[in-house]
Amino acid sequence: MQYFIDVIIPVPLQKLFTYKITLAESDFLKSGMRVAVPFGKSKIYTGIVFKIHNDAPTAYEAKEIHQILDDSSIVNEIQLQLWQWISKYYMCTLGDVLRAALPNAFILESETVITKNKDEIDESILKDDEFLVYEALHHQSSLKIHDISNILDKKNVLPVIKRLIEKEAILVEEEVYEKYKPKLVRYVKLHSNFSSEKALQNLLEDLGRAHKQKEVVLSLFSISAKTKKPVKVSDLSNESGASPAIIKALIDKGVLEEYHIQTDRVEYSGEDNEDSKTLNEYQEKALSDIQSSFQNHNVTLLHGVTSSGKTEIYVKLIENALNNNKQVLYLLPEIALTTQLVTRLQNYFGEKVAIFHSKYSSYERVEVWNNVLQNSAKAQIVLGARSSIFLPFNNLGLIIVDEEHEQSFKQFDPAPRYHARDTAVVLANMHQSKILLGSATPSLESYFNAKQNKYGFVELMHRYNNVLMPDIELVDIKDKLKKKRMKGHFSDRLIEEMTETLNDGHQIILFQNRRGFSPIIECKTCGHSPQCPNCDVSLTYHQYRNQLRCHYCGYNSAMMQDCMACGSQDLDNKGFGTEQIEEEVKTLFPDYKVARMDLDTTRGKYGYEKIITALEQQEIDILVGTQMLTKGLDFRNVKLVGIMNADNMLNFPDFRAHERSFQLMLQVSGRAGRTEERGKVLIQTYNPHHNILQQVSTNNYMDMFNEQMNDRYNYKYPPVYKQIKITLKHKDYNRVETASIWFAKSLRQVFKENVLGPESPPIARIRNQFHKNILVKIPKDQSLSKTKEAIIKINNSFSSVKDFRSVRVILNVDNF
Ligand code: ADP
Ligand code: ZN
Ligand code: ZN
After folding, report:
1. How far apart are CA 502 and CA 84, in angstroms?
2. Distance from the CA of 133 to the center of ligand 3, in angstroms?
3. What SS3 class is residue 466?
4. How far is the CA of 520 from the centre of ligand 2 (A)?
5. For strand 353-356 and strand 490-491, is the pairing parallel, antiparallel, or unpaired?
6. 312 CA to middle of ligand 1, Å?
7. Which residues pair with 521 in a beta bridge?
8. Degrees (nearest 5) of the Cα angle 655, 700, 777?
9. Which strands sit side by side in the sheet containing 540-542, from one edge to the other?
10. Which ligand is nearest the CA of 538, by number?
11. At what angle do helices 211-227 and 233-240 cross, to 10 degrees?
12. What value does the mean pLDDT of the chain take?
């Protein structure tokens, strides 16, 4: 008898590869273990054993494996099932899924990546072979060692790489991850000089005249006596009523000492966890509704308005699951994985919380992986972004998908193009566990599923503490312009409300869904506007760096002095972004602290946390930002939210633009007035009668839902129809056009009028690749798997046409 294994290797192959093993190996091996296997002429890959069997492959002679890498499985049966489901449902290979699922450190061959140094060097110092590599990096953004072997046509290329590094021509990219350990909160303690009672006595006497300073020192004592914990600068300031300036004076004098502690380390004392909060009657009701809904629905949707206290309900459910010795997965959008929520959960559950995050190093991810695999106490609760659905849970009792409407749960590139919420529903099913989807603004598809009774449904319509929902006012900018009541992009109403809010000592958030200074620069003489050389978009002006940048490929160039086409100096800005708003605010309110939060300001180490913390500590009065601001943040002192321009969201060319605008605006509004006093929201628009704006201002989810569903029925969009988007890409426009016409025609023969396109997307060329889209709409009563089979068949014939072979085809299931 012969023994074989089918192995999943991290390459996009349609079929699994079969290898030969010995009898002894077949006794030892289990599915889910890693093996090193030869592939192609000379490559070695780490693969996962999928199946052990006795059937020799018919098409080729099976090779032997190189080595077994594990003593026990690192991937369990349920995971392999989930991988298969993903590969089938999202039309990708198991190799694609493996790449996304395993931490890189598990895939041993993962190679070093070489990139070009951005600063140009003097090329004359390069030897011939060095120059070849350097030159290649002008055409390709990165190379791996084996690419360089190919370029130089020799095996040992490390000496060349080493010399290129020494000449500063290239950079070697080890995985550069930042540890997720923000140490941002400022603390103070009494300087050690005053630790003796005598010294302290003297100090208090000395301070006798400086009344306020004495007050601060005494408050410091009373807080630390009460909490027995380090004292935050902000708490000290609140308790003593002293301004930050007075505290700073004491620090400068050497009376107090300022220090920083990692936020997780402070509260992470392990033993003395906080008890979870007692729920109010509405939360209590929602909790018991959820529990009874779970009796007959594994999936339940919780629609709870912003600040209704959903998180505290999740905490109760988690406690329950832990009492039953189950594992819990708490999924949330990447960006919402801030210290705020992490700290909150660690306060309750201490060491049981493991965090899984793209900012984690490969090593840390392996640690979480192993803890989950071993069902260790340290990872009873996994708090993670999208990719944490791939962890090796073996005893999962509960999944929570927080902010379930968030688009970032969907992976767009590369394959697998999965939606983490939907995959989590499947995962929960495999584990027979419960799953709760929570949101203040549920996605249409989840709400629809709830209405169809496919999901259970629970509502929570009261804010915690009975804080009223913010008062939302629409400001007609067209009218304001006519009456000359605009200063830059600010209406008189917005300025009035801002002035009042600031006078009362409260904070403001201004929302503008575009970064940069202005998205279009236009010559007033000839109408020319600078375009990206690689993409079909205009370049955005970033004033801070005096640069023009492409938001699609990262291209940038210095801002020009005059028009490149006609030389005129009369250049005009069209549209506006966060930078411009920030600048205008600074002119309008010169005495207040303004900060900006967008991709550009949050890039650096802890960039995001720094801004959040500064806002929390009230070091910022006005924060200008993009949709980053919306994600589940809880600020106590923000009273006013201004939405600078609602129209560009509403007019976005996408069937979900209205739904998204509704969600975005309500979520941003939800940041206003979360405690005690009612918040205020001003929405500036050219079109105050737009239905969505009316629905936002009355917080009328049902109206929005009904109206949008109507459109979805009429135009055959999800969730009424399913859809698969097929994108073709090529650097030659004619080629991609011919190819896409061929593809669409073949699809039409099967799916008739349910095929749309091919169409050029609004941005038809990105990174020098022309795109064409084809959309296949799938009625509810049409078999999804048959539809996919037909598409795969067409795709296979497509790739056998010689002219089309170089055209990239991307299949995207549920592409929204
Ligand atoms: P949501 O997630 O629905 O927006 P949160 O769970 O963040 O709301 O709750 C809003 C605020 O109310 C938080 O500051 C939270 O600490 C507080 N809160 C919610 N429920 C309770 C409770 N039962 N007891 C005390 N405070 C609560
Ligand atoms: Zn010009
Ligand atoms: Zn570009």
Report:
1. 56
2. 24
3. helix
4. 14
5. unpaired
6. 6
7. 573
8. 20
9. 540-542, 547-549, 556-558
10. 3
11. 120
12. 87
Structure tokens at 325: 């010795």
Q: Mapping DSSP to helix (H, G, I), strand (E, B) and coil, where does residue 402 land?
A: strand
How far, in Å, from the CA of 52 to the mean position of ligand 1? 51
CA-derived radius of gyration, the chain: 29
DSSP state of 61: P
Dihedral, CA of residue 633, residue 660, residue 468 and residue 278, to nearest 10: -50
- Does residue 631 contact residue 333 with C-beta atoms inside 8 Å? yes
Q: Going by CA atoms, what residue is nearest to atom 15 of ligand 1?
A: 309
Which tokens is 246 given?
A: 């007075």
Distance (Å) of CA 665 to CA 228, 625, 627, 662, 697: 41, 13, 9, 5, 9
Beta carbons within 8 Å of 651's beta carbon, 6+ residues apart = 657
| CA of 311 relative to ligand 1 center, distance in Å | 7
Question: What distance in Å separates the CA atoms of residue 649 and residue 262, rounded to the nearest whole number?
Answer: 38
pLDDT digits (tens, 9 = 90+) for 271-324: 557 788 899 999 999 999 999 999 999 999 999 998 899 999 999 999 999 999
Given phi > 0 = left and psi -120 to 50 = alpha, else beta, which region is 485? alpha
- The rounded Å distance from CA 634 to ligand 1 centre is 9
Which residue has a Cα nearest atom 23 of ligand 1? 279
pTM of the model: 0.80
Q: Reduce the DSSP state of residue 492 to 3 states and report it.
A: helix
Supply the residue whose CA is at minimum distance from atom 24 of ligand 1. Answer: 277
Burial track 91-113 (b if 16+ CB lie within 10 A, e otherwise)? bbbbbbbbbbbbbebbbeeeeeb
Looking at 254-268, 402-416, 451-465, which range is the least confident one? 254-268
- Which helix (H) or strand (E) segment holds residue 17: the answer is strand 17-21
| Residue the block writes with tokens 């979360």 | 674
- Tokens 């190919």 correspond to 150
Residue 108: the pLDDT is 55
- Kind and range of the H or E element at 510? strand 507-511
pLDDT over 70 for what percent of the chain? Answer: 93
Give the list of residues 6+ apart from residue 59 with CB closer than 8 angstroms, or none. none
Q: What angle do CA 163, 169, 171 make, to 5 degrees?
A: 90
Determine which residue's CA is closest to atom 19 belonging to ligand 1: 309
Please give the Cα distance from 81 to 99 (Å, whole number): 16
- Residues 262 and 260: their CA atoms lie apart, in Å, by 7
Closest to 673 (Cα-Cα) out of 642, 700, 636, 699? 636
Nearest by Cα to 416 from 96, 789, 32, 811? 96
Which position has the token pair 């930050």? Answer: 244
Helix or strand (DSSP H, E) at 647 = helix 647-650
Atom of ligand 1 nearest to the CA of 306: 4
Q: What do you get for the CA distance between the two ends of the chain, in Å?
A: 50
Give the helix, strand, coil percentages of the chain, each rounded to 5: 40, 20, 35
Q: Tell me the pairing of strands 456-460 and 299-304.
A: parallel
Q: Report the nearest-CA residue for atom 20 of ligand 1.
A: 309
In 739-766, which positions are buried (b, 16+ CB within 10 angstroms) versus exposed (e)?
A: bbebbbebbeeebeebbbbbebeeebbb
Ligand 1 pocket, residues with Cβ under 6 angstroms: 277-280, 283, 304, 306-312, 464, 634
Q: What is the DSSP string of 134-146?
A: HHHHHHSSEEEHH
Ligand nearest to the CA of 555: 3
Helix (H), strand (E), coil (C) string for 557-623: EECCCCCCCCCCCCEEEECCCHHHHHHHHHHHCCCCCEEEECCCCCCCCCHHHHHHHHHHCCCCCEE
- Measured CA to CA, the distance from residue 523 to residue 741 in angstroms comes to 37
Residue type, 315: V
pLDDT in tens, 675-690: 778 899 999 999 999 9
- CA distances 423 to 84, 317, 454, 725, Å, are 12, 21, 16, 19
pLDDT confidence bin for 103, thresholds 50/70/90: confident
pLDDT grade, residue 173 (50/70/90)? low
pLDDT digits over 8-62, tens only?
998 888 889 999 999 999 999 999 999 888 887 767 788 999 999 999 999 899 9
